Fold Cytochrome c.
Amino acid sequence: MKGSEEIREGQLIFAKECSACHGVRGKGAGSPSLAMGVVAPDLTGIKQRNGGYFPREFVSRFIMGRLEKEDPFSAMPDFSTVGLRHVYPNGGADGEVLETDFANLLDYLEAIQE
Ligand code: HEC
């Protein structure tokens, strides 16, 4: 288990970058995703869908657009190109994905698995 500080930090990032589509608690079906006619998957069930193991490497590559998607026109942004930009709305790190931020985000995702 990771420290609660990392997880809390990751939760903030998730709220800004992901919750619109994936829902405040990662349960899926945020309203923009419904408006787009797609349903963003429930992210709390990744571990369950994966035989009880959280595939951190897969998730990380997926978010960074490094995996071939089943649907090439998927609505899910490629964060390696758009960056985690809401984290620093005014700062110099705008549009970047900082390694610690990304690690915290993954810690958060791992922590919300059911
Ligand atoms: C604009 C809407 C949108 C945003 C914003 C978004 N996603 Fe997604 N996400 C989707 C959609 C739609 C899918 C399913 C289609 C696909 O495979 O791309 C998906 C799929 C995923 C998957 C794969 C789940 C699985 O079980 O295979 C992961 C992991 C994921 N998103 C994480 C994130 C994270 C973390 C963020 C924030 C950094 C984020 N998403 C932001 C729409 C979004």
Observations:
- Residues 49 and 78 are 22 Å apart (CA to CA).
- Residues 4-111 form a domain with the Cytochrome Bc1 Complex; Chain D, domain 2 fold (CATH 1.10.760).
- The chain has a mean pLDDT of 81.
- Residues 17-18, 20-22, 32-33, 38, 40-41, 43, 46, 59, 62-63, 69, 71, 74-77, 79, 105 surround heme C (CB under 6 Å).
